UniProtKB/TrEMBL annotation:
The keyword Chloroplast does not apply. The chain crosses the membrane at residues 16-37, 57-75, 82-100, 120-140, 152-171, 205-225, 237-257. Keywords: Membrane, Transmembrane, Transmembrane helix. This is Uncharacterized protein. It comes from Costertonia aggregata.
Length: 266
């Protein structure tokens, strides 16, 4: 808990605006959670507020992660502010569209049922595109610059950003086919809350784990760095093995989904 408190405190001090947008995401998640209990409208087999609830939490975690990691880069104040603002405001508008469409009881993604819905979906694509470019910037800068952290953690951040970039590419695959399921129409039987298909392939699995690599891989490296009983070289090896295994897992879930096979079948 003290580490989480440290992350929030660092982000709040470094970028109050970004910190405020993280809080907005948490407030939206709370509102969506309440909506789940008071609004019984269903969309594609799920309550309309489940999706914005998940995206609010995921978006808030991502923005908080960027807000903290950027403090490790030797960037000037202006560059930090530009990246922080681009990340937080683009994702705020993104979640705003998702919440808005949920309030109307219609799909936010792959919705081309009207010109208005199509324009909103296109706008979401542009907003995410900005963040994908920022991910690419982070990959390059993490390789070429010396971050204010241990080498093993820096290497984990490189691997994390690279896997996230692949996870975003999976998102592009879903846009390409205008659906997240493979083998069946979207909206069939799925896991509770996550709604990942239990009868066919679902590209959201690889997308989800891919996007959260930037939290999971560096967190592993951070925990390893606290182990004073292993050497500097052993830390590097452990981080590399973990990052590679995690990448293999993403590749496996992507391949499995493309074959039309569910992650978990009932």
């Amino acid at each position: 808990m003290k580490y989480l408190k440290h992350v929030f405190g660092t982000v709040k001090k470094s970028s109050p605006i970004l910190y405020g947008i993280v809080l907005i995401h948490l407030a939206l998640a709370t509102a969506c959670f309440i909506g789940f209990w008071v609004d019984d409208r269903m969309l594609m087999g799920l309550n309309v507020w489940v999706k914005p609830f998940k995206f609010s939490i995921s978006g808030g975690i991502y923005i908080l992660t960027v807000g903290y990691l950027i403090t490790l880069y030797p960037y000037g104040k202006i560059k930090k502010n530009i990246i922080n603002n681009l990340t937080s405001f683009t994702l705020l508008f993104e979640i705003g569209i998702i919440v808005f469409q949920a309030s109307r009881g219609v799909q936010s993604h792959y919705n081309q049922s009207s010109l208005f819905d199509g324009l909103l979906f296109a706008a979401m694509g542009l907003l995410i595109g900005v963040n994908v470019l920022l991910m690419l910037l982070f990959i390059i800068d993490t390789i070429r610059l010396r971050l204010k952290t241990e080498r093993a953690i820096q290497w984990a951040i490189v691997m994390g950003w690279t896997i996230v970039f692949f996870g975003s590419w999976v998102g592009g695959q879903m846009i390409g086919q205008m659906a997240h399921n493979v083998g069946v129409t979207d909206g069939g039987e799925g896991l509770p809350l996550l709604n990942w298909s239990t009868i066919a392939g679902d590209l959201r699995v690889a997308h989800f784990f891919g996007l959260h690599a930037i939290q999971i891989v560096p967190l592993f490296a951070f925990l390893i760095s606290k182990k004073t009983t292993i050497t500097y070289k052993q830390k590097h090896i452990a981080v590399c093995i973990f990052g590679l295994l995690y990448a293999v897992w993403i590749g496996f879930t992507f391949y499995q989904a493309k074959q039309g096979i569910a992650l978990i079948q009932f």
